[in-house]
Amino acid sequence: MRNGSFLIVENAVRMLATSERLLRLLALLQARRDWNGPKLADELGVTTRTVRKDVERLRALGYPVHADPGAAGGYQLGAGTALPPLLLEDDEAVAIALGLRAAAANGGVAGMEETALRALAKLEHVLPSALRRRVGALHRATAAVAGGRGSGGPSVEPGDLSAIAAAVEARRRLNFDYAVRDGATALRSVEPQRLVHASGRWYLVAWDVERDDWRTFRVDRMRLRAHEGARFARRADPGGDAADYVRRGLRDATWKHRARVTVHAPAAEVAARVPADVVVEVLDEASCAVHVGSDSPRQLALWLGLIDADFAAGHDPALARELRLLADRYLRAAEQPA
Known about the structure:
This protein is of the alpha+beta class. Helix content is 46%, strand content 21%.
C-alpha cells in the first residue's frame, strides 16, 4: 500500500511538471514567431525529444503548432479555431493594464473608452489574485491629466510604478534617490499620495517629510530604495485634486512671464473663451481675475486681446508697456489708408 501511494504521488508530481512545462512552452511560442527545437529545449531545460512530445500534446489540445522537419526544425504557433490562453509575465500584465486604463481615460477614438474598459475587465478577471491586487493598487493610486496624452517622454519600469502604487495603497513612506537637473542625486523621504500621468510622463505627488510640504517628482528620475518605510496617515489631495495640482505645476513651469489680470466680464463667459488650464477666479458678478502666462510680455499682450473683453493690467509694468506699444500700432493702422 505504501508503494502504491508513493506511485500515485510520483505520477501526480510528474503530471504537474508536464502541465507547467506546457504552459511555459505556450508562453515561449507566443513571445516569438519562430523557435528551433534545440533553443526551446534549452529554454525549458529538457531534451529536443521532450519538446517534440510536448508539441504533440499541444496539438492534441487543439493548438495549431507548425513544425519544420530536421534535427534543428523550427516551431511556430499558428492561427486556429482554438484561442490559446494568453500567458503574460507580471510586468507584461501591468503594462497592458496601464495601456488599457490610459485608453479608457484619454479616448480620442470613437468607442475607445468603453472598449478599453471591457478589455480591462476581461484581463483582470483572469489574472492571478496576487497580480490582480497589484494591478488594482496601481489603478487606485493613479490619476490622469485630461488632454495630457503627450508622447516621447522618458520610459519608466512597470515594476517601479507597481512598487510606488503599493506604497500609496499601504500608506508607507518611500525613500529614493532623486536626480535633479544638474545630474546630482539627493535622498528623499516622502509620503506618497498619488501617481499622475501627464504629457507622456509619470509623476508622483507626495508629502515631502523634510520640507514639510507637497512636492511633485518625476518617476523616471527616482531610484527606489529597497526597504519598506514607516506608515503614515493619509492627507487630502493638494488643492482637492492631485491631477490638477500636477497640471497647474506643469503649466506654471513652462511660462516665462506670468500675470494676474482683472477682466471686466463674468467669470463663466471668460472661462468659455480661454484654454482649460487657465485659472479664472470670480471677483463679482461682472468681473473676474484671470491667471495667465506666456513666453514674453509681448506674446501675453497679443493673447489677452483674444479674450474680447476690457481688462486691467497696469500693475504689471512690462505687460503695460507692451499693451501701449500694441495700442499705438493698432491706432496707426486704423488711421492710415491701405
